[in-house]
């Protein structure tokens, strides 16, 4: 049923669509040939967590994968588990005595890929409803929402809550035929598309906020798309160097080559 819905669209509509997820909850449909933003769909922020710092009990989540860091004694340390992993293992207790409790909610978003309009949702709580049957205008995108609570059993006032949303748990494998490599900025919504074969910048756009994930929407569903996060100054230097390469024919920027061949 799901395959019939997803594969019912002309390949020309889906195969050229790049989906960009930003930290503030937007899904943006972009024509990956031109960089034109075709539509924007607002969902809840990818990450919701406390903004205040609690001494000895402050955790900083990574919005890209839900990884966790702890701020202790002025130092940032990466923990060996992520929010999704802790939710999967909950209820649990770690060696340092912290208690973890969590829950996961999976939904299918029914979206019009031409307009970026959410037609509806399908989740376990709607078990009596059949799969969406609007085959000619809709595609389905899976979304998982992880809610996690951390508690100090010796001090009930020390509690930390976070919600992390992920679209990747239902993804298909990376498509090796995709022609571009993407770079994004660490501090804003700048996205750069580089044609690896020709060594030129195809387009550069601003999606409004920090990018946390990228996907290609094809006739068989969502495909994960890798990208490289660099500093804002580095991204700007990329553009300058590539423009120089296009004009003079001088070799590709050394910093670019060092990144793509790591």
UniProtKB/TrEMBL annotation:
InterPro entries (alphabetical): PQQ_b-propeller_rpt (IPR018391), Quinoprotein_ADH-like_sf (IPR011047), WD40/YVTN_repeat-like_dom_sf (IPR015943)
Top-level division of the source organism's lineage: Eukaryota
Protein name per its UniProtKB record: PQQ_3 domain-containing protein
Species of the source: Onchocerca ochengi
């Amino acid at each position: 049923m799901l395959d019939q819905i997803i594969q019912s669209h002309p390949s020309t509509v889906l195969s050229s669509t790049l989906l960009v997820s930003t930290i503030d909850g937007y899904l943006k449909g972009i024509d990956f040939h031109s960089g034109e933003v075709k539509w924007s769909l607002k969902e809840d922020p990818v990450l919701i967590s406390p903004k205040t710092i609690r001494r000895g009990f402050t955790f900083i989540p990574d919005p890209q994968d839900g990884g966790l860091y702890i701020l202790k004694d002025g130092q940032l340390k990466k923990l060996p588990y992520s929010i999704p992993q802790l939710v999967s293992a909950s209820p649990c207790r770690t060696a340092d005595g912290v208690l973890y409790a969590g829950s996961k909610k999976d939904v299918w978003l029914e979206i019009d890929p031409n307009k970026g309009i959410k037609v509806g949702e399908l989740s376990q709580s709607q078990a009596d409803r059949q799969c969406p049957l609007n085959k000619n205008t809709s595609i389905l995108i899976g979304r998982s929402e992880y809610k996690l609570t951390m508690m100090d059993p010796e001090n009930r006032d020390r509690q930390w809550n976070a919600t992390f949303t992920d679209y990747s748990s239902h993804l298909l494998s990376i498509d090796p035929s995709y022609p571009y490599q993407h770079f994004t900025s660490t501090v804003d919504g700048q996205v750069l598309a580089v044609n690896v074969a020709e060594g030129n910048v195809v387009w550069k756009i601003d999606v409004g906020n920090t990018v946390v994930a990228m996907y290609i929407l094809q006739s068989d569903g969502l495909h994960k798309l890798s990208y490289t996060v660099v500093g804002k100054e580095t991204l700007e230097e990329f553009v300058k160097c590539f423009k120089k390469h296009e004009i003079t024919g001088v070799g590709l920027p050394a910093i670019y080559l060092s990144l793509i061949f790591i």
